[in-house]
Amino acid sequence: MADRLAALITHFPVAARVFNAGPLCGINTVEEDGVHGQLHLVRAGPVEVVHGQHSLQVERPSLLLFPRPLTHRFVTDPTRGADMVCAHLAYEGGPGNPIASALPPVVCLPLDALGGAEAVLGLLFEEAFAQRCGRIAVLERLLEVVMIQVLRQLMETGAVRGGMLSGLAHPRLRRALVAMHEAPAREWTLDVLARQAGMSRSVFAAAFRDTVGRTPGQYLQDWRIGLAQQALRRGRPLKVVAAEIGYGSEAALSRAFKAQTGSSPREWRNGVRARQPG
What we know:
The protein has twelve helices and nine strands. It has helices spanning 6-11, 98-102, 118-128, 135-156, 164-169, 173-182, 190-197, 201-212, 216-233, 238-244, 250-261, 265-275, and strands spanning 14-24, 27-30, 37-44, 47-51, 54-58, 62-66, 72-75, 82-91, 107-110. By secondary structure, it is of the alpha+beta class. The chain is globular, with a radius of gyration of 21 Å. Strand 4 (47-51) and strand 5 (54-58) form a beta hairpin. A five-stranded antiparallel β-sheet has the order 1-8-3-6-9, covered by helices on one side. The longest helix is centred in the middle third of the chain and has 22 residues, at 135-156. The chain has two domains: 6-156, Jelly Rolls (Sandwich), CATH 2.60.120; 170-275, Arc Repressor Mutant, subunit A (Orthogonal Bundle). It starts with 5 loop residues before the first helix and ends with a helix.
């Protein structure tokens, strides 16, 4: 079976930046900054998690994922607190990263429900609550591994409803999605994609739209333009990128880019540079 996450993680990686590794006492607020998500692991201690008008009561070791910017607050015992590891999540492509945009606003999972993660979590907490050389660097790499395990868990348990991850969880549609992710330059007609999925043309088209929330053609366009935006951020020339993602010329890519984003590639790139600090 093709790896459902390989192309996603290669093209649009997620980086963790630890900002707490130890007891968290009293009331602590994480303000949304318009850019980062957050990943929190609760090793011990009850925690009330408040976000907007909603609250969660965490009574057992758990993972809390806020994939997109969202202000949230932790309420713990002011003396004993709760043992937690907390990190900001920086996405390649910002909040529009396809992984970030595919996830629900909040994910809460008991740690013992995260299949296959026992060894990683054991090492992670051992590093978090010791004072070792390179501790933060190790924690950040381990948290990035945990993010992959969360994506696996959500797909394998069918815990996502609608969007890309639902498609990747589907036993047949996943084949077409992975094919588009791995070879965006190929001429993907509806008939070819349906054959990839082992479905009839009409059944495939309906199942894709109902599961992913858009047509295969719209999804492919989104994926290609996302790759073009990534290339622009990295300073790659558009004429080179055009052929790599399925457009016959720079002009063809520019037209598709403007239709998708409302800006020309040059305007979009200049806007990104203007928003960068320093």
